[in-house]
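[step 3/7] fold_predict: job queued, chain A
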Amino acid sequence: MPFTKLGHKGRVVIPAELRKKFNLKVGDNFEIKEENGHIVLIPQGAHQTWAWTTEWAQKVEGALKEVEKGEVSRAYDNLDEALKELKKRV
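[step 4/7] structure written:
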């Protein structure tokens, strides 16, 4: 098992053999969490990088504010039901 050490500004170097094994590249994003007293890094694939953007974070923040204000509608079982409700609002 390879070892590493904590460096300046809390940086940790992932050993080359593990970067190669898991196809990790400079700039890749990771989820970091504590699990059973261990620090776990979970690589986030390219299909998940949208969740790390400032734009997406702002959209989520805005949506949460709308929920808090009660500015969201319920989920509908079908399109006709949703359209009927929308027509009432116009």
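[step 5/7] annotate
The longest strand covers residues 29-35.
The chain has a mean pLDDT of 88.
exit 0
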